[in-house]
Amino acid sequence: MGQPRRRSRQRERDLDVEIGFVEALLRRDPAFAEALEVLGDLYSERGRHVDAIRVDECLAHAKPADPNVRYNLACSLAMNQEFERAASELASAIELGYSDVGQLSEDPDLADLRAHPAYRKVRAKLRALKVPPV
What we know:
The protein is an all-alpha fold. About 70% of the residues lie in helices and about 0% in strands.
C-alpha cells in the first residue's frame, strides 16, 4: 500500500474547517457541482476515502461523460483499495477522453492500483485507443 501523506495538525484542522464550510454550502445547495468537486478533494486529502468515494459517485452520476470526474473516482477507489472498480472507472475515463498519461503514471493515489493485476484492463484500454501505455 502507498505511504500515507503526512500532514501537520494545523493542516488537519484547516482541512476540517474547509470541509465543514463546503458541507454547509452543500446543505444549502446539494446540486452545487463545483462545491462537490472541492469537497471530494478535501475528503481525499484528509484521508476520508469512503466519503470521497461517495462524493465522486454523486459527481459521476451528475456528470457521466466527464473524464476528470471518472479519473477522480478511480483515484478515490484506489485509495480505498477497491482496485477492480478503480480500474474500471479509469478505463471509462480514458474511453471518455482522459489522456494525461504522465498523470496516470505518476499520480501517487494510483500507485497501488498500478501494481495490481486489475491495472491490466487500463493498459489494454490505452492500447486499444492507441495511447502510449504506462
